[in-house]
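Entry 14. Structure prediction run on the chain below.
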Amino acid sequence: MNSWFKIKLGLGALVTRGALVSRLAVVSVVSALVAIVGFSSPVLAAEGLATDWQLGLSKSVTPIMDQIVEFHNLLFILITVITIFVLALLIYVIIRFNEKANPVPSKTTHSTSLEFAWTVVPILILLAISIPSWRLLSAQYDFPKADVTIKAIGNQWNWDYEYSDHEGISFTSIMKTDDELEAGEPRLLSTDNVVVVPVNKVIHVLITADPAGVIHNWTVPSFGVKADAVPGRVVRTWFKARQTGTYYGQCSELCGKDHAFMPIQVKVVTVKEYEKWLQWANEEYASNDSIDDDVRVAKKPEADVKEVTTLTGIAK
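Output returned:
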């Protein structure tokens, strides 16, 4: 009985050891493949919004997002190297120091060089991570002079926008229902009133929330912008988009039953188109004395402003 029990234990150890090596090998291969193909690339990432089977982060169109992508890729390389190194050590220990290959184990209890290495190497890795991290953090909070200032107010569950440089422009942005979507507009991301900004201009966004509400989060991945909207507090962020197009985001802070239905839609246009939109918006929103959460404040576009309404995203 004792012999049979020992045989079972030996087989069990062999199976467990083999399974461990196999699992570690699979983890290493998967990590390496993800690291190789997971880098953010304009080819892999769609413009403005995520797509099915997309690899990498959203396409970057701002200097801040460029740094975020570079930092992300650096960490991917470090993580992959560390994973493969640790796997190699584990496999070596399993093969070299098992009972059969090494029946008389070493009684070594101290190694100055080894202890020096496992202390210094992690420090160097952390330094390699900290330098670009500090650089990115500094860039995010180093605010250039604003060309346009917009105030975003999170409500339950929509966004109010006020153009601080133009007192007459303020509106509520509400997600379009399926019946309101036009051809090519993404579901759950399109809004009735769109934030419009000029290309290659510094945009400051002042973010807050309804004082009687809850915390929200204003996030647009392609801009590298993600900031909490806190009741009673104003948070400032900025971006400078270098490419025209429509970019989407969502509230990224759990805020209640309709958290999933608070999209953000930003239209980046040329300076000339932006000036035309300002003329239209000054007339369109002139009669709105206040922003009502329950009412869509934009009037139906008139025939003489059809050229500009393509920038607003307002259903005709």
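The chain is about 35% helix and 20% strand.
Filed with the rest of this week's runs.
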